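Hello again, I could really use a second opinion on something today. I've been staring at a protein lately and its backbone has me curious. You're getting the sequence in one-letter code plus the fold written as tokens. I'd be grateful if you could look everything over and explain what you see. No rush at all, and the record is pasted right below:
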Amino acid sequence: MPEIASEEPRVPLATYRLQFNRLFPFDAATTAMPYLHRLGITDVYASSYLTATPGSLHGYDIANHNALNPDLGDAASYDCFVRALQTHGMGQILDVVPNHMGIAAAANAWWNDVLANGPSSSYADFFDIDWDPINRRLANRVLLPVLGDQFGRVLEAQHLRLEYADGAFRLWVYETHLPVEACSTIQILTVPLGELRTTLGDTPEFTNTRASSRAFPSARADRAAPERVRERMQEQAVIRRRLARLVDTCPPVHVATDDTVSLYNGTKGDSRSFDRWKP
């Protein structure tokens, strides 16, 4: 068998660091390549350009290690940057810090799944979380230091707000929104069932709403088998789509959802009028 010649490793001779962010995206780097080439730069040393917390100026609070940062441009603009490097015979060194991860602005899907599903999340092992602390009340929970004052004061000031969007509920804490766990979702959906039964009767819409409130799969307080985790995630996705369709197409369910959110938020909703939607 003929010996396969191995490619010689590239040895950078002169590097220039590029700090990517929304002020210096891929297009700006592409424009700079001819100048850097004339300077004698052989390789650019690129800051992380994976998806980071929106608006990040340094890019190391990574929210998704599997995608380019949309603040810097799309795949086409990245390809132009790479072609500019190749045209000038230049290479790049990408600064990859796999243990850096940002969780702000609810931009990290892995972290959101851990908050919603606890130790039975598919990503529970991706984070350094002590699920079995000395304080047993915190077992299988994530303690977040997000309140600016005592809980009662924050609640009375309405800095904690429930919100419904696209078949799911979330909790706004100041300017950050957090996912609502399945058990709490069931509790929220149960609130309007009595009035909906009166308004809708034994209609398919009421049956589907009741089924959604009862069938929403809850997270386990332990590390479930991987196949069960996948099943639960699929079940949650199906029920969220069902609930979103009901809210979008059935006015009484829409009104009931809005009023339930207002009830939890301690605000007086102006949409409580189930009678006007009676068929």
In short: The chain has two domains: 15-94, 108-277. The chain has nine helices and eight strands. The chain has a mean pLDDT of 85. The domain at 15-94 is CATH 3.30.750.90 (Transcription Regulator spoIIAA).
